[in-house]
């Protein structure tokens, strides 16, 4: 019998055996429809074997082979197997989650991509006269293809039975799907590279085989230009390029920018903002090699790319590369593995690399490439001033110094940006009489006051309430907003500077599709004087008129219990500060803080990532935190606190009994201990090396799966970023 082992989207770590008709042409990587219980499921053939451990009569036949899409290449299947092993996530769910939704259904895939066919080398060498003359259609096709490649529509025009004939010709090895083979020659040059840029480009292009490069360049140093030159180099060698970008950066502008730089190379984007149809079509174009530049967010790291020759990861420190549910992968780390597997270079770019990456560059695992100068000659780094909030009278969160600085910019017709990492009007509403606070009844968080629609909202579970007219606890009508959010700053500015054009950018104001790109257009068209917003504004945008950045309240992160909080804060502030003075006019950054002596601010003022990174590394080494150890988080949540804690205690006991080489910490409540009426808790595991951690996890996971876990959801998070 002909047996195939199929990956299915089920929470089980096995493959499933099915039989195939002897004459079936199904191959590894192909999609199939198979019976499972009373359902029919889509799966991927992972292996073809001669025999099964199951008794013959228990093996059901494959219902249908879906051959409207090329099989997934073996290389991608290997990558997915690695991810399943490394992240301890069921193989079937890993494989299926890598596909666009359309390919997870048996709906036929209509191809909008022209399928282009051409002769293989053996096909070219054929002497048609020696072939059996009765295969008329095949001969006609071979004959036609000798003149050059043709798409399927042209071939159909030769004969209605062309598709069947083609299949035989492909099978015979004479015809193949041809990819666009002309190298993308045209390349819009914009700048002569600086010496630093050139050195970086040379280091990567002269590299043979796998190499991981950390491109550490200050904001405005022209990392993008380095990417462009590297892409050009790869395209000329007829390679595909994968450019990963953080979620927020995926803007039509970015796409258009790279299109304009490479007018001949087909570019597609892949991100969650695309409709399913478009995403599938783009994916197929990447898979058949037609798309040469793939610009995508984390999920695009799993795109089949037959000619992949270069991977670029922009803003490699960005936490959006880490998926926080399901397969909890880090797209950056998977990309590195992929480059290694394929033997190609990968470049990680950032002004503030993740400490892990910086450490790897220092220890020689990655090669460090530095850009220390801003690329535009006149542009200097912004000057940074700290405002001690203990010493001034603040008005709605703004210091007099910041207000004065804003006024100056308005007079000079320059742009300002106020950065505050809280959306809403105020983080909580309080009763002045009894101290009642607006808390969420279902979570351990507060209800945030949103003034435009007069609502209290929970940012964790989505609960919404009308703002009460008086205190629900004592009836006092005097309820006061406490703390500052983006809406409150916007309201204050509107009152204070009624003539100026103020724009608020946060998740609320950009909820509607297209609103963010409309806003960016307004900014680009110089229609905005003051921008108020969250981290959405910090990343990657080039605002040439911007000369002032105000940071309103960075202090929470300074003394947070999350050991990564200050690393993230530095990156965020460096990035937001980097928005100022990117063109000719010098920029200024004002930071309001109650801790102006904190070493983080000192390093930020000196634009000294390196000394800051060294400080953090020394702390981490002392505390035994990553990158000096490897971590895993076991999380659990459920409706009953008892069940959650018992499960984790038992998990801990089982783990402790397994080994002494890894450290299992105590079971503790999660950072948000209750969400949507579920109790959440966690258990941290730490080891000196992956080599001890991974075997432990392999032994431990089956024990976890065997533990009673009524109504519980639990997950393993490898290399967790959130605590
Ligand atoms: P980064 O991504 O490092 O923050 P960008 O790539 O956005 O920096 O470049 C900053 C600015 O410098 C852009 O306006 C870009 O056009 C310009 N630029 C880049 N390289 C050069 C160069 N070699 N000569 C002149 N200008 C450059
Ligand atoms: Zn009250
Ligand atoms: Zn809630």
Automatic annotation (TrEMBL):
Would the keyword Hydrolase be found if you checked this record's keyword annotation?
yes
Could you say which residues bind Zn(2+) 2 here?
440, 443, 458, 461
Q: Which cofactor does it need?
A: Zn(2+)
Q: Give the UniProt keywords, A-Z.
A: ATP-binding, DNA replication, DNA-binding, Helicase, Hydrolase, Isomerase, Metal-binding, Nucleotide-binding, Primosome, Zinc
Question: Where does this protein have coiled-coil stretches?
Answer: none
Q: Name one GO molecular function term.
A: ATP binding
* Top-level class of the enzyme under EC nomenclature: isomerase
Indicate whether Membrane appears among the record's keywords: no
Which SUPFAM superfamilies does this one have?
A: P-loop containing nucleoside triphosphate hydrolases
Q: Which GO terms describe its biological process?
A: DNA recombination; DNA replication initiation; DNA replication, synthesis of primer; double-strand break repair
> Which positions bind Zn(2+) 1?
431, 434, 471, 474
CDD domains noted in UniProt: DEXHc_priA, SF2_C_priA
Which is an annotated Pfam family here? Answer: PriA_3primeBD
- EC nos: 5.6.2.4
Gene3D superfamilies for this protein = P-loop containing nucleotide triphosphate hydrolases (3.40.50.300), PriA, 3(prime) DNA-binding domain (3.40.1440.60)
InterPro entries assigned to the protein according to its UniProt record, in alphabetical order: DEAD/DEAH_box_helicase_dom, Helicase_ATP-bd, Helicase_C-like, P-loop_NTPase, PriA, PriA_3primeBD, PriA_3primeBD_sf, PriA_C
Q: Which reaction does it catalyse?
A: Couples ATP hydrolysis with the unwinding of duplex DNA by translocating in the 3'-5' direction; ATP + H2O = ADP + phosphate + H(+)
Give the UniProt entry's GO cellular component terms. Answer: primosome complex
| Cofactor binding note of this UniProt entry | Binds 2 zinc ions per subunit.
Residue span(s) of domain Helicase ATP-binding: 204-371
Outline what the protein does: Initiates the restart of stalled replication forks, which reloads the replicative helicase on sites other than the origin of replication. Recognizes and binds to abandoned replication forks and remodels them to uncover a helicase loading site. Promotes assembly of the primosome at these replication forks.
Family under the similarity heading: Belongs to the helicase family. PriA subfamily.
Q: Which NCBIfam families match?
A: priA, PRK05580.1-4
Q: Which HAMAP family match?
A: PriA
Q: What protein name does the entry list?
A: Replication restart protein PriA
State the species of origin.
Answer: Ferriphaselus amnicola
């Amino acid at each position: 019998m002909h047996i195939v082992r199929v990956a299915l989207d089920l929470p089980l770590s096995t493959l499933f055996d099915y039989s195939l008709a002897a004459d079936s042409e199904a191959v590894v990587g192909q999609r199939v429809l198979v019976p499972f219980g009373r359902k029919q499921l889509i799966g991927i053939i992972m292996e073809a074997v001669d025999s099964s451990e199951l008794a013959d009569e228990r093996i059901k036949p494959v219902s249908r082979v879906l051959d409207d899409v090329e099989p997934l290449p073996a290389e991608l299947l290997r990558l997915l197997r690695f991810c399943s092993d490394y992240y301890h996530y069921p193989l079937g769910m890993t494989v299926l989650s890598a596909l666009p939704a359309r390919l997870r259904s048996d709906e036929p895939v209509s191809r909008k991509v022209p399928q282009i066919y051409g002769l293989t080398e053996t096909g070219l060498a054929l002497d048609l006269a020696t072939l059996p003359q009765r295969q008329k259609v095949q001969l006609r096709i071979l004959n036609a293809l000798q003149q050059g490649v043709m798409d399927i529509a042209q071939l159909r025009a030769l004969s209605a039975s062309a598709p069947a004939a083609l299949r035989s010709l492909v099978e015979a090895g004479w015809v193949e799907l041809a990819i666009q083979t002309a190298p993308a020659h045209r390349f819009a040059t914009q700048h002569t590279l600086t010496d630093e840029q050139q050195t970086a480009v040379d280091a990567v292009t002269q590299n043979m085989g796998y190499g991981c490069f950390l491109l550490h360049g200050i904001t405005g140093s022209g990392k993008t230009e380095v990417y462009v030159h590297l892409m050009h180099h790869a395209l000329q060698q007829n390679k595909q390029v994968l450019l990963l970008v953080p979620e927020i950066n995926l803007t039509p502008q970015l796409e258009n920018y790279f299109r304009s730089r490479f007018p001949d190379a087909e570019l597609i984007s892949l991100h969650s903002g695309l409709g399913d149809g478009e995403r599938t079509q783009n994916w197929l174009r990447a898979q058949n090699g037609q798309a040469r530049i793939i610009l995508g967010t984390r999920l695009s790291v799993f795109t089949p790319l037959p000619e992949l020759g270069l991977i670029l990861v922009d803003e490699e420190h960005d936490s959006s590369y880490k998926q926080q549910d399901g397969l909890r992968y880090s797209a950056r780390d998977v990309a590195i593995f992929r480059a290694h597997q394929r033997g190609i270079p990968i470049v990680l770019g950032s002004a503030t690399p993740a400490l892990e990456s910086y450490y790897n560059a220092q220890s020689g695992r990655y090669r460090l490439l530095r850009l220390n100068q801003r690329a535009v000659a006149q542009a200097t780094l912004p000057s940074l001033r700290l405002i001690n909030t203990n010493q001034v009278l603040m008005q709605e969160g703004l210091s007099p110094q910041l207000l004065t600085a804003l006024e100056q910019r308005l007079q000079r017709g320059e742009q300002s940006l106020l950065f505050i990492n809280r959306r809403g009007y105020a983080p909580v509403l309080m009763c002045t009489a009894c101290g009642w606070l607006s808390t969420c009844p279902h979570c351990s968080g507060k209800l945030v006051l949103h003034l435009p629609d007069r609502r209290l909202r929970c940012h964790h579970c989505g609960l919404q309430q009308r703002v009460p007219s008086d205190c629900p606890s004592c009836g006092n009508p005097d309820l006061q907003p406490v703390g500052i959010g983006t809406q409150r700053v916007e309201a204050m500015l509107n009152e204070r500077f009624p003539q100026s054009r103020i724009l608020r950018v946060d998740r609320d104001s950009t909820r509607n599709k297209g609103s963010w790109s409309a806003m960016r257009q307004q900014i680009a068209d110089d229609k905005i004087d003051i921008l108020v917003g969250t981290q959405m504004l910090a990343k990657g945008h080039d605002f040439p008129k911007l000369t002032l950045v105000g940071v309103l309240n960075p202090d929470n992160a300074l003394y947070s219990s999350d050991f990564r909080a200050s690393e993230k804060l530095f990156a965020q502030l460096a990035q937001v500060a980097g928005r100022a003075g990117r063109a000719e006019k010098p920029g200024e950054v004002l930071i309001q803080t109650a801790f102006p002596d904190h070493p983080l601010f000192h390093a930020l003022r000196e634009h000294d990532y390196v000394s800051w990174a060294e400080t953090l590394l020394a702390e981490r080494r002392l505390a035994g935190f990553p990158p000096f150890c490897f971590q895993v988080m076991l999380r659990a949540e459920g409706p009953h606190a008892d069940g959650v804690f018992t499960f984790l205690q038992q998990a801990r006991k089982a783990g402790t009994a397994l080994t002494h080489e890894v450290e299992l910490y105590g079971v503790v409540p999660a950072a948000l201990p209750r969400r949507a009426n579920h109790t959440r808790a966690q258990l941290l595991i730490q080891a000196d090396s992956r080599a001890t951690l991974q075997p432990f996890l392999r032994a431990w996971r089956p024990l976890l799966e065997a533990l009673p876990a009524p109504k519980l959801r639990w997950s393993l998070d490898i290399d967790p970023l959130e605590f």
